[in-house]
Specification:
CATH superfamily: Pyruvate-ferredoxin oxidoreductase, PFOR, domain III
CATH class: Alpha Beta
Shape: globular
Helix content: 25-40%
Strand order of the largest sheet: 2-3-1-4-5-6
Length: 206
């Protein structure tokens, strides 16, 4: 699926500690730079040992001024942990695309009874109040099928590229994956990327 140049594209990557959201952000940002795009952004790190929230805000294009996306202007939300999407509903534009990993990572407070985890249907219904463009994707299962259970983040990156909304070449991203992922995990990560890409491309063309 071809990419096109954009004046401004605002992306939020969200998940919890240990899911590789910051690596996703690093790969996406550096691939944008490699393709000559202006990039602004910011990151918030949670407590990985407790599954704390982690998010990255990436703004592409010459029209992107400042590191933070204005409220209601997020064009794409990629939630590696589904409930994390709820934190950013107010950031979404009405035309936003939301890609949700369907595999939950429940915080320890749910097990101890200190908090409740929302049903997936509730997550979907909440997001649909803002945008109808939602693609659920079992990136965790894709990663396992690709041969590396830790490659769910790479599957989600593939899904993001499969949306056709990025002004970044797929080849640029794949070269960065090869350079940043441990050699023994490269093949599985590239396979996960391709599977995520295909799943979203097929969903949008259905």
């Amino acid at each position: 699926m071809p990419t096109t140049a954009v004046e401004e594209l605002n992306i939020i990557l969200a998940g919890v500690g240990g899911q590789g959201v910051i690596l996703m952000s690093d790969l996406l940002g550096n691939s944008a730079l490699a393709d000559g795009l202006n990039i602004q952004g910011s990151e918030v790190l949670g407590m990985a040992q407790r599954g704390g929230s982690v998010f990255s805000n990436i703004r592409l294009g010459d029209g992107a001024v400042g590191p933070l996306t204005p409220q209601g202007k997020c064009d794409i939300l990629v939630a590696v942990e589904p409930s994390e999407a709820l934190r950013y509903v107010k950031e979404l534009a009405p035309s936003a695309l939301v890609i949700l990993n369907t595999t939950e990572v429940r915080p320890y407070t749910v097990a101890t009874g200190e908090s409740a985890y929302p049903a997936f249907d509730v997550i979907l219904a909440t997001v649909r109040k803002v945008t109808k463009q939602i693609i659920p994707l079992d990136a965790t299962q894709i990663a396992k099928e690709a041969g590396n259970a830790l490659a769910a983040n790479t599957a989600m990156l593939g899904a993001l590229f499969g949306s056709g909304r990025l002004p970044i070449k797929v080849e640029t991203m794949k070269e960065l994956i090869k350079s940043r992922v441990p050699p023994k995990a490269v093949e599985a990560n590239l396979k996960a990327f391709d599977m995520g890409y295909a799943a979203v491309a097929e969903s949008l063309n259905a």
